[in-house]
Amino acid sequence: MENATLTRSFELYAFAENHFEKHHLKSIQEISGLITPDKKFWLNIYKGDDDKVFKDVCDFFEIHPVAFEDIQNTDQRPKLEDFDNFILIVTKMLYTKSSIEALEMEQVSIAFNKNLVITFQEHAYDIFDPIRVRLENPYGKMRKLGTDYFSYTLLDAILDQYYVILELISDQTEKLEDDIINDQKKVHLADIYRQRKNLQEIKKIVWPTRELISSWRKSESPFVTKKVNPFINDIYESAVEIIENLEMQRESITTLVEIFMSNISLKQNEVMKTLTIIATIFIPLTFIAGVYGMNFENMPELNWKYGYLTSWIFFIVVSLLMVIYFKRKRWF
Questions:
Q1: What is the DSSP string of 275-305?
Q2: Which residue ranges traverse the bilayer (predicted)?
């Protein structure tokens, strides 16, 4: 790999209550001279095009092979696992770089012990910039509390992004509803089902995320301190709130589909009513035209001088009378 790519792959933050430094590393071996027991460290890695980088890091820190498989396999469902030297949290990060139609999902694995937090990401883009800024603040809790609190802030940032995505979906749903009511030609059924699909994808990851937070609350690992329990309870409540929000959004989408289909049915009924009125008007006209079109010899009206003109007058009068009748009945 090129040096520029490697530099971006390893991002190391060393911090303590009165200390902060940041390093861009070219290789994992450079970490050996930087990690000391008197500080806490955050190592942020993204795989990019290098499939070996996660393996190298896991081997370097002696992370369990089962944990490595969970980190490497990006199709994992969110979960938490306790190991002797690390706690592993596997979760999903959601973000959008343009519009909600381009919803991105990426697996983020967080491994932490007493003084080290490692985040494994698939791509360089992430949502952790506010955490990087907070880390530079010497008066914040992030510097004072342990790595379990820092891991909480990472998961909290991921959950906060779920709120942002759900708000975008909600805004899009409201826009679709307005368009359906005002001008349904702007809306396609595929647009509504795309919203439903996004909600289903989020639901698949939020439910197991709540379970992993519940497991974190019950963890007896030495890497989880009592000081962080209130914060873990806070993100548990956030996960529950997100699930409730999801259910409300799904109901809104279901209602939207019903409105869409009802509007289509109404328009079809309007078309059928118009065609029925036209056909009804032509029934007596067709009858008269059919009778006098039989050309029997003993039909005196056929030789009448004003027969043709009278027929047209009769057609027009009957049509007008039927239109007036339908109007009074408010059939159109």
A1: HHHHHHHHHHHHHHHHHHTS--TT-GGGG-T
A2: 275-294, 306-326
